[in-house]
Write a structure and sequence with these properties.
Elements: E1 4-5, E2 14-15, E3 18-24, E4 36-41, E5 47-52, H1 61-74, E6 85-91, E7 94-100, E8 105-106, H2 107-114, H3 119-137, E9 151-154, E10 157-160, H4 174-190, E11 222-227, E12 231-238, E13 245-248, H5 265-271, E14 300-303, E15 320-323
Antiparallel strand pairs: 1-3, 2-3, 3-4, 4-5, 5-7, 6-7, 8-9, 9-10, 11-12, 12-13, 14-15
Helix pairs in contact: 3-4
């Protein structure tokens, strides 16, 4: 379980029949919002987890009825390998869920301090996490944001935690949950996550939102967004559907005598007239598309990315790739591999 910190000045002290005792770091939900998560005490003195969801989940009578119906369904999730949802309600305008408290460290914490799991523990994790997700799916719901932070290695084995009451919607599907399960088991086996939502420099680290929906979609599509209110950034979605991966195209080398300046991501999109209108476009079609050149023999090098100092340890990852033979490589680093 994540570290518990003291309540803040503006935090609720009680939600429904539960007395809040501390705050737990929230994780982005399937709608991109970050719920408020608290440790709390029930009337019988037992420890539970209270999660305040986005107000939109209970905005209006229809939304409140839907929330109540989905919460009833979520309480039917079998408890074998998933933390049980014990209660749900609405406090003022805030819908909330009450879930079972599972003592223990998260998979992310264990791997971070001890390294990859040994064979028997890895096998137990794979089975337990898959069983927990299957229990959620059997009720018609999905987890939506599954990962190493959402598995607690408790005294009774691995338990899936922090799932909400989310029906399948857009990229949030049972198939996407199982892809996240595969990534999580890979993380446990090798001690490092695949590139994607775990990369704090990536938009997908904020979870599935309207903005990042294309990133979580199929590979080979354009992901275009605006920075500083003036520069369009052109990215290509890569990886499997649901993995939240894309590559920023920083520069390109003009051919056949074309004199365009493609020496930066903003200059590239201006010259190629790429705007957010092509966001989500299939790049295998006949307007904006990619072509494989069998005669091209790049000498690919990797270096640290630019402008991601906020990303913690991810700022030092060698995830910026360029052709060392090309004159179009911008801001060529002094040190690279």
């Amino acid at each position: 379980m994540s570290n518990v910190t003291p309540l803040r000045a503006g935090d609720h002290r009680r939600v429904g029949r539960y007395r809040l005792t501390g705050r737990i770091d929230g994780r982005p939900g399937t709608d991109g919002s970050t719920p408020q998560v608290f440790q709390a005490k029930a009337a019988d003195g037992g420890t539970v987890i209270v999660t305040l969801l986005a107000k939109e989940r209970a905005a209006g009578n229809a939304a409140r009825d839907r929330f109540a119906a989905e919460a009833r369904v979520a309480r039917r999730v079998a408890p074998f390998c998933a933390a049980r949802i014990l209660d749900a309600g609405i406090e003022g305008d805030d819908p909330y869920l009450v879930t079972e408290y599972v003592p223990g460290l998260s998979l992310a914490e264990v791997v971070g301090s001890e390294g990859p799991l040994p064979g028997p523990a890895l096998h137990a994790l794979a089975i337990g996490a898959a069983t927990g997700l299957a229990a959620i799916h059997q009720t018609g719901l999905v987890h939506g944001v599954f990962g190493p932070d959402h598995v607690v290695l408790g005294p009774d084995g691995p338990r899936v935690t922090h799932f909400s009451i989310t029906p399948p919607y857009g990229p949030a599907t049972p198939a996407a949950d199982m892809l996240a399960w595969a990534h999580t088991i890979t993380f446990a086996a090798v001690g490092r996550p695949p590139v994607g939502p775990q990369d704090l420099a990536s938009h997908s680290s904020k979870g599935l939102t309207k903005r990042t929906e294309v990133m979580f979609g199929p590979a080979g599509h354009a992901y275009v967004y605006l920075v500083y209110g003036m520069y369009e950034m052109f990215n290509i979605v890569v990886g499997k559907t649901g993995s939240g991966q894309a590559v920023l195209i920083r520069s390109a080398e003009p051919l056949d005598g074309w004199k365009a300046d493609l020496s930066g991501p903003g200059k590239l999109t201006r010259a190629l007239k790429i705007t957010r209108s092509v966001n989500g476009r299939d790049l295998t079609r006949d307007t904006l598309y990619l072509v494989f050149d069998p005669d091209c023999r790049p000498r690919v090098r990797s270096a640290k990315r630019i402008g991601v100092e906020y990303a913690g340890k991810w700022k030092d990852k060698l995830l910026r790739f360029f052709d060392d033979k090309s004159t179009a490589a911008t801001h060529r680093p002094v040190e690279y591999r």
